[in-house]
Amino acid sequence: KKRVYLLSEGNKDMKMVLGGKGANLCEMTKLTLPVPPAFIITTETCLEYFEEGTGDLPAALDYEFALKAIEEDTGKKFGDPLNPLLVSVRSGAPASMPGMMDTVLNLGLNDEIVEGIIKTTGNERFAYDTYRRFLNMYSDVVMDLDKEPFEEVITSIKKRKGIKLDLEMEAADWKEVVGEFKKLNPNVPSDPREQLRGAILAVFRSWNNDRAIRYRSYNNIPDEWGTAVSVQAMAYGNMNDGCGTGVAFSRNPSTGENKFFGEFLPNAAGEDVVAGIRTPQPLEEMATKWPGVYEELYKYQEQLEKYYCDMQDIEFTVENGRLYMLQCRNGKRTAKAAVKIAVDMVKEGALTEAEALLRIPANQMDFFLHPTLDPTAQKTKIGVGLPASPGAATGKIVFTPDDAEVMANMGEEVILVRKETTPEDIHGMKSAEGVLTALGGMTSHAAVVARGMGKCCVSGCTAAEVNAKNKVLKLGDVELKEHDVITIDGSTGEVYLGTVERRSAAEDEDFQTVLGWADKMRKLKVLTNADTPDQAAQARKLGAQGIGLCRSEHMFFEPERISSMRAMIVAEGKGERLQHLETLSVFQREDISGILKEMDGLPVTVRLLDPPLHEFLPHSPDEMQSLADTLGKPFSVVKDRVKQLKEVNPMLGFRGCRLSVVYPEITEMQARAVARAAAANKKAGLDPKPEIMVPVVSSAKELRLIVPRIVAAVKEELDKAGVDVKIPIGTMLELPRACETADQIVGTDDVDFISFGTNDLTQTVWGFSRDDAIRFIGRYQEQGLLDFDPFARIDEEGVGGLINMAIEKARTKQPETKVGICGEHGGEPNSVQYFHSSKFDYVSCSPFRVPIARISAGQAAA
Ligand code: ADP
Ligand code: MG
Ligand code: MG
């Protein structure tokens, strides 16, 4: 088995074996870019390490030959004091997990070798700076010592000398630091080969550190992959002012603008940029400082982007005027940049529309629906930082990731404020609406991670004094305490006091172009779930092709209407009930007519009353008394009715079509209201297309009872009005029994369509109560019993299996039957993919998910 590869032996398609970083290092070498020589230990060897469980390297792993190859290539020798080879030991998984795992730099140093470096280079400062970096990283990464005492050493020397920057530290200072570090940790092995063994083991172990595990679960990266380890000759960015290090993007990862973009730090090592220790300089300055190097880098980024056909994220180091490429990968980008880059690359002829569409992260597209700051709004600016990740957010400030998570779980919108973020902050960033940091550049951890999450972020707001201990943020004269409200604008870097008005970016031209591609390609129609004319209008603007679910009961929860509803429910006898139903019918007709108007010419599926009746009734004695007073009935009548309707398990109780069975007059009223609304709109010259849908059906027999009543009521109303409107009738499949007997259901006279109610269907197939499952679903996910929440993403195996069987039965019996879905899943990208492949006619989702569903449906068909 081959466990070790030289860069000349791999290529970009070997990510599973060599990790993304390793595979791309091989590819850059093939393209003859200047990459320091390296060898790569395979991901499989990492798995072997975990399997063997000895805590030592797999016995069969041998990298001596590869180390020798690097020595020959560089003309240096590992462990040789007079001409030492130093290496970096880098992690690299098949999928990008930036900063989640460990890397050790400058490995191969000891007291003797440092002296050798001083002798041969004459650069004492460089030698001790490099040594202290190594001791620090090795102690942290390999030996798991606390970082703080090490930082403390440097801070106290700086304080004593009255300096702030690493650059101001002199050779003697770094030498002193090295001495102190060795006191803090006297146990760093001095044998370079022993160091190498330790570092490789540490990188293997880092595959299973907490933050890597958490990152994988957020990003659906399998735990079984393992990390590769790259061992690479060091390029030194920290020798003198002719050296430096930087990060570059072939296009702007925040806005998508097609302009080479990046940052560099002179006289520094790679980890300094990412850690945000000093604020880096824009690449333009490198063009002035080192024009030759800049030009070369410019050429490579162009070449790499063309080659990979995607925006590239590049790490580089300059050693004495020589450029070294240390990493390239397809760059993470914001939702906005993803859309702009896709559109531009189609214009440039680099991608087809279908290829470009597939690059769009559909689930991040809600960025375009979420607001940006209204430029005309009143606002008080209190600070400005870097526009690290666009979008705007308002929230209460919190100072720790845990506080962010706790507050968010209570439904609060928060802004996470940090001096700088580290991978330990991820869960807090995920919970926050936005992130504000005092330190760090455009490529700092906070910026990169926020962009990946599609979260707005302002980084490098250097005027901000963040005191996490006392939970105070000072910006100039303004002092803010925990839970004070601020607004941040990640597109401009500005920070405002309090709430600022925002507006949507849905009009964005590039976004509309992408939607246009999706619409051309998709087979699925995208409808919406909307209950009011306002929602209908909004959804139509976002591209909804009709309403797949209009919950008629929502109209009765309005304050003036609920009293009529309650009166109808506590009515004593049919006569009294009919009287109140007449009032309700007027409301219902008005609302439906308004919705039909907004959706004129498009289908509007009105679902009959679904919830258990007791949901409409008051439950406290005071409220019951006041209802009794309004209705002029004795308290006992109301109380008895409430008691009578109370259910132990209402979700499986007296609801849906069961109400129609017991109170046909309610269904009849609703059918009449729909017909009247349609008739009125038709007479007004419009083109109403209502449909009526019966919920919670479990057998065709129920439909045989209910549907004829609907047909009769509709016919009577339309005849009375003297207009002709076709009103299709359908039913929801949301119970397993209905799915099992879908053939009988679609075989029922006058049943024209079926729509899967996947919320209830998930609930009834799993036997998970929708309202109670929160208590354990998280634990199920943590323990690997669920890969995702089946209420958010369709469970293809179980629920999906049943759906496919039902569709097959239905289509065999009635090939014409229209098939739709109207649960939350209708706007979830993976689920939409599934509905496409199961040949649904339409999905219906909430208005704000409509564009996401359009793109997902386009991607499914592309
Ligand atoms: P990550 O996956 O966290 O980015 P990397 O393996 O890329 O970790 O290394 C972290 C930093 O160390 C990077 O900034 C990189 O530029 C720098 N680095 C890694 N290997 C070398 C090397 N051989 N010479 C110089 N710098 C290096
Ligand atoms: Mg890197
Ligand atoms: Mg339902």
TrEMBL record:
Top-level taxon: Eukaryota
SUPFAM superfamilies noted in UniProt: Glutathione synthetase ATP-binding domain-like, Phosphoenolpyruvate/pyruvate domain, Phosphohistidine domain
Protease among keywords: no
Residue sites binding substrate per the record: R551, R607, E734, G757, T758, N759, D760
Top enzyme category: transferase
Annotated Mg(2+) binding sites: E734, D760
PANTHER family: PHOSPHOENOLPYRUVATE DIKINASE-RELATED, PYRUVATE, PHOSPHATE DIKINASE 1, CHLOROPLASTIC
The protein's name: Pyruvate, phosphate dikinase
Species of the source: Sargassum hemiphyllum var. chinense
Species classification: Eukaryota, Sar, Stramenopiles, Ochrophyta, PX clade
